Amino acid sequence: MTKKLMILTFVFAIAAVAGIVATPVTVEAGRGDGPIVYVTSQGLFYDSIITADPLPPEGDFQLLEMGGPSGTLMTEFGPGDPEYLGGRWKEDFDGDGTFHFFSCPLLGPGRASP
C-alpha cells in the first residue's frame, strides 16, 4: 500500500470512527485525493490533496471540524481568505483535546455542491 493511500485511508477511517460520512473525491482532471471540505465563510466546497501527514505541531494551524453539509468536513476560511493557512490543519475528531496536525491544501475553484 502506498504512503499516500495509507494517509487517505487514515483520514477516512478517522471520519468513519467519528461518526461522519466522508464523501470520497472523484479523481478526475487533476482533482485531489483528499476529502471534500466545506468553507463556511464562502459557502463553497473544495477538493483537497494530502501532502504531509503528520506534521509536527509547530507554527499556525487552522481548525478542521466535522459537521459540514452533506457529511463533509468544514473549516471557517479557504483560498482567497486572508486567514486561510494554505491547508495546514489541526483536527480533534474524538474530542479528547489531542490534535492531529497535517497538510492538505484545498484545490480551487470552490463550488456550490459537494
Task: Walk me through the structure.
With 114 residues, the chain is an alpha/beta fold. It has one domain (3-109). Helices cover 13% and strands 24% of the residues. The strands form 2 sheets. A 4-stranded mixed sheet has the order 4-1-2-7, with no helix packed on it. It has a 3-stranded mixed sheet with strand order 3-5-6, with no helix packed on it. The radius of gyration is 13 Å and the shape is globular. The model is unreliable at 1-30 (pLDDT under 50).
Structural descriptors:
1 helix, globular, single chain, disordered N terminus, 13% helix, 7 strands, four-stranded mixed beta sheet, 114 residues, alpha/beta
- What's the SSE pattern? HEEEEEEE
The separation of the N and C termini measures 28 Å
Main sheet specs? 4 strands, mixed
Q: What would the average pLDDT be, to the nearest integer?
A: 80
Q: Name the beta content range.
A: 15-25%
Could you give a quick summary of the protein structure above?
It contains 1 helix and 7 strands, in the order αβββββββ.
What is the strand and helix layout of this fold?
Blueprint: H1 3-17, E1 37-39, E2 44-48, E3 62-63, E4 73-75, E5 88-91, E6 100-103, E7 106-111
Parallel strand pairs: 1-4, 3-5
Antiparallel strand pairs: 1-2, 2-7, 5-6
